[in-house]
Amino acid sequence: MIRSMGITTLGDYIIITIALIWLIVAAVSDIKKREVPNWLSFSLIAIILGIRVLASILSWQFSYLLYGLAGLILVYAISNVFYYTRMFGGGDAKLLIGLGAAFGTNPTFMPLGIVELPFIINFLLNTLLVGAFYGVIYSIALALKNRKAFTIEFRNIAKGTERIRVIFLVFIGIFLLIITKAQLYSLLPLIFILIIFPYLYIFIKSVEDACMLKLLPSSKLTEGDWIAEEIKIGNRVIKMTAEGLTPKDILLIKKAKKKILIKQGIPFVPVFLIAALISVFAGNVFIMLAELLV
Questions:
Q1: Which member of 122, 123, 179, 240 lies 3.0 to 4.6 Å from 183 by CB, making a disulfide possible if both were Cys?
Q2: Helix (H, G, I), strand (E, B) or coil at 217
Q3: pLDDT tens digits for range 205-245
Q4: Domain boundaries, given as residue ranges, for the chain
Q5: pTM exceeding 0.85
Q6: CA neighbor of 51 nearest in space, from 102, 11, 19
Q7: Which parts of the chain fold into alpha helices (H)?
Q8: DSSP of 229-276
Q9: CB 245 within 8 A of CB 225
Q10: Cα distance between the two ends of the chain
């Protein structure tokens, strides 16, 4: 029993250490090059599963491997949703799948108070919260950096959505008339979110259209790049897809010697790194905030 616990605990130390090292390397690459190399993601998956297989055989605790596979499958499903809705790039999605395998079990060396929920759930919830703050701050920084283009785009989108915003506010007004005072106080956070939602949408859309588009020569295109508009080359039309540009698309564009307007995403791997560090050393941020408010 002591021997088996020692093996899985050692496995946890190695897995968490490798995951954090791989995340640091991936975060640097994402910030510098706006891409996460496939070898990083695939090697993370292979190494983590290899460690889990070895630890399971030596300790006769095959749940150690099964929970890792369950984490991989869970995060694979989540990553595909984010990928096909174009919220994540392919590199982000593949790296997250590797983290699912790494964080599928609760590290045995962590205090019980920190791991009140399954570790993978703590990590995903922390990623959600950190990602929201990170996205807003990053978007504000982009808007300030490209102030003139952002202001023009914001005004154009605001003018084009004026009628929709008025209808939205009318519905909120009707909703306020039919609820009681007690319901009003309990629903204030939701009402506030509903009121600012149209303006938040305009802000994000303006940042995306004015600050996250870049004209690149064909020589600098990479597989998976998202094009901002359809490209017509002879009889061929390259359409905007979640998968981005394929090697064949890039070869065709290079032959045509075209410059292409690319949509650049926010480098999101730093969010994974921050969320992982918080999960390991602090626990679940949502639970911590709830305890502070109570």
A1: 179
A2: strand
A3: 888 778 887 888 877 777 777 777 788 887 888 887 767 77
A4: 2-109, 141-211, 213-263
A5: no
A6: 11
A7: 2-33, 38-59, 63-84, 90-102, 119-145, 147-160, 162-178, 181-186, 188-211, 247-256, 269-281, 285-293
A8: S-EEETTEEE---TT---HHHHHHHHHHT-EEEEEPPP--HHHHHHHH
A9: yes
A10: 40
